[in-house]
Each structure stands twice: as structure tokens, then as C-alpha cells.
Design brief:
heterodimer; A: 115 residues; mainly beta; B: 115 residues; 7-stranded mixed beta sheet; 4-stranded antiparallel beta sheet; globular
Chain lengths: 115, 115
């Protein structure tokens, strides 16, 4: 089912440490996944994406891992900084041939960075 | 690139009045726009999907006559909350996407408070 409307899990990390945020997605047909960062009072901001034909993708200080066998997605943030404090959402979608298909958002994880 | 704006950013209105929220894609043409609602510390809940020039597709449980969506051009979509009531108070976020590209780009959100 859709993972919306649940309470936010939280993660606290020390500044400089690495953060790992996990996400279980719901649809085995999903073939495109995105991580978004949402700061308080703002809209979600695109961080990184990955397609189902990959199992790892790296960006600047961030890495996304995809395990299709167990329908699991993770976001790794290296050397976490105070500015990384936010709510992180994973999102899944299945790319249709004739229309844009909706994106399903996970419940989100609140990341707090301890200075 | 891929900037989406929303106006207003914050609105307070009296119960029974209607409120219009605008969503604009500033530097790209958005063939599809999405409207989400978000409660505090919760995930994004998709309300409706609108394709330029077509009627919006509403999610189950979202009242079409209550939340009027218009996507008249490739850069503008509007959400009108009709006869607003206190329970409509929420954070409304739009996103925009271009056909052929799966990534949605989000606006900054509009905080609606109905007194």
C-alpha cells in the first residue's frame, strides 16, 4: 500500500559522521526512485535519483543504494553537516509509456545533526 | 534550472471564503503538475494530477468541487480551495514535471490557515 500519513522516524547523528537513511518501497513494479530533502517550512528538494537497472549511484557527498530483491532503498550522507538537518523522503514511481505516472512518497525520516 | 514558484507563500482567510494558490514553472514547460497536501510531521499526500489542457485527475477521497484545479498553460496551474473551513488548514505543495523526464520539481509550498 502507499506509505503516507505515518509518523516520522528520527535519526540523530554527530556532525562529521556518516548518515544512513533507509526506505522500504511498496511496489515491485517501481523502476525509478528519488530522494528528496525537505527543510522546515519549505518544499522538497531533489537530491539524487536511481533507476532500477542500477544498484548504486553516487553524487556529491550522497550515495543511493537500491536492493530490488528486498525492495529497499538507502541514502548515505558522508561527513554529515548541520545543514543536512531536514526530513528526507524516498519516492518511487513506475514510468509509464504514454503518461506521467504519479510518485509515491515514503513516510520520511527526520535527520538531526548534533554539532 | 527547474525552478517552481508558488504564490502566496502564506495565506490566512476566514471560514467560508475561497483561496487560490498559484504554481508556476519558471524556466521550463510543465506538461504535468501535481498538488500535494502535507500535515505537520507527515509525508506528502497527493491530491491531484493535472496535465496541461486537460481535466485534473483527483486521488480517492479528494473532493473535486472543493479543490478546483486548473492547468491552463504549460507554466501555470492553480488550486482553488472553495468555501474553506478550518480543517482545510494545511501546507499545500505543488510540483511540476516535463513529459519524458520523471523527476518532479517542487514549489516552496503555501501555508493556508483558515480561521
Amino acid at each position: 500500500g502507499e506509505s503516507v500519513g505515518l509518523h516520522l522516524p528520527t535519526l540523530s547523528v554527530q556532525e562529521g559522521d556518516n548518515s544512513i537513511i533507509n526506505c522500504a518501497y511498496s511496489n515491485s513494479a517501481s523502476d525509478y526512485f528519488i530522494w528528496y530533502k525537505q527543510e522546515s517550512g519549505k518544499g522538497p528538494q531533489f537530491i539524487i535519483d536511481i533507476r532500477s537497472n542500477m544498484d548504486k549511484r553516487q553524487g556529491q557527498r550522497v550515495t543511493v543504494l537500491l536492493n530490488k530483491t528486498v525492495k529497499h532503498l538507502s541514502l548515505q550522507i558522508a561527513a554529515t553537516q548541520p545543514g543536512d538537518s531536514a526530513v528526507y523522503f524516498c519516492a518511487e514511481t513506475w514510468t509509464g509509456k504514454t503518461s506521467y505516472d504519479k510518485v509515491i512518497f515514503g513516510p520520511g525520516t527526520s535527520l538531526s545533526v548534533i554539532p | 534550472g527547474a525552478v517552481v514558484s508558488q504564490h502566496p507563500s502564506r495565506v490566512i482567510c476566514k471560514s467560508g471564503t475561497s483561496v487560490k494558490i498559484e504554481c508556476r514553472s519558471l524556466d521550463f514547460q510543465a506538461t504535468t503538475m501535481f498538488w500535494y497536501r502535507q500535515f505537520p510531521k507527515k509525508s506528502l499526500m497527493l491530491m491531484a494530477t493535472s496535465n496541461e489542457g486537460s481535466k485534473a485527475t483527483y486521488e480517492q477521497g479528494v473532493e473535486k468541487d472543493k479543490f478546483l484545479i486548473n492547468h491552463a498553460s504549460l507554466t501555470l496551474s492553480t488550486l482553488t480551495v472553495t468555501s474553506a473551513h478550518p480543517e482545510d488548514s494545511s501546507f499545500y505543495i505543488c510540483s511540476a514535471a516535463t513529459r519524458g523526464q520523471e523527476t518532479q520539481y517542487f514549489g516552496p509550498g503555501t501555508r493556508l490557515l483558515v480561521l
